[in-house]
Design goal:
mainly beta, eight-stranded antiparallel sheet, 45% strand
């Protein structure tokens, strides 16, 4: 029993979007994997029947509670954004909606979380072709930091529709 505590996954780690680490998070993040099951019901069934349950994929989401946002990578936080240099009202970078109705392939990201177990073995969560379909929601409160919840949903590849677009890799 004592060795079992070594495989405890520790909650802190590094979030990464397309190979770029998210600088700081506050409140960590969250992994959700929701399989879709269909129960084939027949007259007279009292409940779910073994052998008549089908699985039709899953939805995998990874939420990053980002305390810092990197301006150069801002367009990877949400689809349909553009970034341009501006000089007025101040010199800097302007981010705005691009006005596109079809989301380009470049708006789909590889999102990872790299952490470890209590005994130092790596744990890596990967979401492929992930996109943040949630609203951008900033609470602007006096004496508090803005924490952006970036919730990425992994998407299936049309050419490999039965290959789930997520994985968890446990190191040796």
């Amino acid at each position: 029993m004592a060795g079992e505590t070594q495989s405890i996954i520790l909650g802190y780690g590094v979030f990464n979007i397309n190979g770029v680490d998210v600088a700081l998070s506050k409140g960590g993040g969250k992994l959700e994997i929701a399989p879709t099951y269909v129960n084939i019901e027949a007259d007279g069934d009292y409940g779910v029947v073994k052998g008549r349950i089908l699985k039709f994929g899953s939805t995998a989401k990874l939420t990053i509670n980002a305390l810092t946002l990197i301006v150069d990578n801002f367009t990877s936080y949400m689809p349909g954004l553009t970034k341009t240099a501006v000089t007025t009202p101040a010199a800097g970078t302007e981010v705005t909606g691009s006005g596109v109705t079809v989301i380009p392939d470049t708006d789909f990201q590889k999102v990872t979380w790299t952490g470890k177990t209590k005994d130092g073995k790596s744990v890596i969560i990967e979401l492929d072709n992930a996109i943040n379909l949630e609203k951008f929601d900033w609470d602007l409160k006096d004496k508090e930091q803005v924490v952006s919840a970036l919730t990425y949903t992994a998407t299936y590849d049309e050419a490999a529709r039965t290959t789930e677009p997520w994985s968890i890799i446990f190191g040796d």
